[in-house]
Amino acid sequence: MAKNYAYIRISDNNKQDAKGQRDRISKYADEKGLLVDKWLTYELSGSKTSKDERGLIELIEKLKKGDRVLVNDIERLGRDSISDILEVITRIINTGCEIHFCLSGDVLAPKHKNDLATFFITMGRAFAATEYSKERSLKAKAAAERRKLQNLPTGRPAGTIVKSKLDKHENAILFWLSQDVPKYEIANRQGVAASTLDKWLSRRDELICQARECGIYEKGMGLSEIKKALKHRLAG
């Protein structure tokens, strides 16, 4: 049976960056109906290390025909060597596997190994998506810095009611908890960190209590319904 491998690489112990990659890969996999079988995370430079040190050779040697490799963006495969990136991608598709660039939404598959136009256009889009993401990040940081200098809030106010990717899986999560499935295993199934699941569960309890205090809670209400009702009450 084909397996899906998610590959994450960060330059240092930047947990937020790792979380961002994991969240985007998880969202992409969910949209495509894919279940990640194995998460591979490496904390090391992409320009100062070899393919072997970054775990890419080990990953390629694990692959079987039909498997998929999911990466956030093309730079996860390397930073300074185009030849290294080309070699990694070529070896993956020559093994009969696909590589998915979740940031751009592009896929390179075995059928593209002799289609040079598609191969290089796809790589170009993957690189362009990475550069665009960097540009957006720099603009966001600059905007936050300007707001900070003006003594304006730079983050979301505490207690703000927002959607979570876990909301739609509420019933499954509660069922697994009732079956004594460990939280770390549930978090892995949902493609989130265990701490994210803990925060979601705590926030769920808070919102249920808030809904009860407001007199809008009804037995059987799901979290999405509770959030919608509370937003309506606050807006009114």
From TrEMBL:
Tagged with keyword Cell inner membrane: no
Domain of life: Bacteria
Keywords: DNA recombination, DNA-binding
Record Gene3D superfamilies: Resolvase, N-terminal catalytic domain
Domain Resolvase/invertase-type recombinase catalytic: 3-151
Pfam families, sorted: Resolvase (PF00239)
Molecular function terms from GO: DNA binding; DNA strand exchange activity
Protein name in the entry: Resolvase/invertase-type recombinase catalytic domain-containing protein
